[in-house]
Amino acid sequence: MATSPLRFDRDAVVRLWLHRQGLARPRGEARLDREAFVDHLERTGALQLDSVNVVDRAHYLTLWSRFGPYDRSAVDGWAYRDRVAYEYWGHEASILPISHLPLGRRRMRRFPPESWKSKSWWERFNTSTASKRRVLKRLREEGELESGDFEWQEHELGPGGAPTESWGGKEDKRSLKLLWHDGRAAIIERRHFRCVYDIAERVYPETEVATPAAYEDSWLFTALSGSGIAPERHLVNYFTAPALKASERTKVIARNLKKGRVVEVRVKGLRGAWYALPEHLDLIGDLPEPAGTTLLCPFDSFLWQRKRAEELLDFTYSIEIYTPIDKRTYGYYVLPILHDGRLVGRIDPKLHRERRVLEIKAIHLEAGFESSMGFVAGFGEAVESFAEFLGASDIEMPGGWMAQLG
């Protein structure tokens, strides 16, 4: 006889989510070492990379939110020297655990995704076979090249000495990126955040290729690993590789429910079926109440699914980088404030590197949030830790900030 799904309240779901994301006790006693770095990648799936550098790179900020100040060169060494991780497509461009490589290999074999082939931009972005061959030849012979190394060459000039894309240059730069996507080139390190490439077989370890079914299943398992308990609408786009159609997602969930690898549960007061990995449900009763204060990067894995933050934490968040200045609500590069397991506000920071000053241009607390001495102390300590991590010797706060914090 069928049994009714287990039921959990919203607080239990949030506690498990914070636990899986490493945010139940942010910047506490946990130290960022190689084991903790790998554990974070395995739990959340990846560290998203992004070029915006208003205060620091996204992957460095994401780790600081959990561990406090640490040595960035150690992270670079674990990822690029020790090869416990690799760069590829996860949520977006990401640092992924090396255990993920068989899944990455499957995407490489499928590249470009079917959804790309029908897009008009794909015809413009794709490159010629001749260009890809040129790039591979240079990598084999020279190794360790950046996209900036693919500039116009004398033999790449068109009729009349004018450069044309069909002869190289911009086309070869695009080929380099496409060869990374299809697995023939790999990123071996970053220099001042610029990607350095080599032939893939000189970078990636020998590994099997995940089956198509395992690759599709990874959409579900990776998202549930980082989320704990979630409905399908919270799992969509947690990882964008693989990007599955609705019908494909339904099949993935159904077959893993049937195998008992995933269980269906209910969340009190929230609609629809929710899912979890059985081993995670055993943890819920032992999880303590979340405590501590930290700041979150806009590209933090905790915020990859905006609907989830809105539905579980009543926090609406969007990145306003591409919003015109006069239409921004909160600021250019806004960091949410996490306090005792709740998103209670946000700050708009900017690092003035030449003056070694961290400027907090604005503080916005959520409507209805009641400040406390514990919050004021936790927020102040978080900002001081943030400044230390960024190498700032001074902090500039907005006028009236103490009164604003209550």
Could you walk me through the main structural features you see in this protein, from its secondary elements to its overall organization?
There is one protein chain. Helices cover 39% and strands 17% of the residues. It has 16 helices and 15 strands. The protein has helices at 10-21, 34-44, 58-67, 72-81, 101-110, 114-117, 120-125, 129-142, 170-181, 212-227, 232-235, 246-258, 278-281, 306-313, 373-390, 401-405; strands at residues 6-8, 47-48, 85-89, 93-97, 145-146, 185-191, 194-199, 229-230, 263-267, 274-276, 293-295, 335-339, 342-352, 357-365, 394-396. A five-stranded mixed sheet has the order 11-12-13-14-15. A four-stranded mixed sheet has the order 1-9-10-8. A three-stranded antiparallel sheet has the order 2-4-3. Helix 5 (101-110) crosses helix 10 (212-227), helix 8 (129-142) packs across helix 9 (170-181) and helix 10 (212-227) crosses helix 12 (246-258). The longest helix has 18 residues, at 373-390.
Explain the layout of strands and helices.
Layout: E1 6-8, H1 10-21, H2 34-44, E2 47-48, H3 58-67, H4 72-81, E3 85-89, E4 93-97, H5 101-110, H6 114-117, H7 120-125, H8 129-142, E5 145-146, H9 170-181, E6 185-191, E7 194-199, H10 212-227, E8 229-230, H11 232-235, H12 246-258, E9 263-267, E10 274-276, H13 278-281, E11 293-295, H14 306-313, E12 335-339, E13 342-352, E14 357-365, H15 373-390, E15 394-396, H16 401-405
Parallel strand pairs: 1-9, 14-15
Antiparallel strand pairs: 2-4, 3-4, 5-7, 6-7, 8-10, 9-10, 11-12, 12-13, 13-14
Helix pairs in contact: 5-10, 8-9, 10-12
